[in-house]
Amino acid sequence: MNWRFAIEAAEDPQSLPRVLGYFAQRWIVPSGVTMALRDGGMAIDIAVEALDEQGAAIIAAKLRENVLVAHVTLLGGGEAIVAAAA
């Protein structure tokens, strides 16, 4: 299944590499990554193909534990699967 991670993080030089590190730890190369500075923070969108629901949920949970991450929304098939603040 294809997944999209919509992440709101602190405007910090370490936010983007730390977020991408969770994918690298699982040997996942995202199919797309975008980042924009907004309202004093970072909006990071990551698209991943061929990842099972359990793997996506694990990555989303790890992202939420990061002190630099304020909010994570996990979308699969165009619908919000998980939306929770850290």
Automatic annotation (TrEMBL):
Designated name of the protein: ACT domain-containing protein
Source organism: Sphingomonas sanxanigenens DSM 19645 = NX02
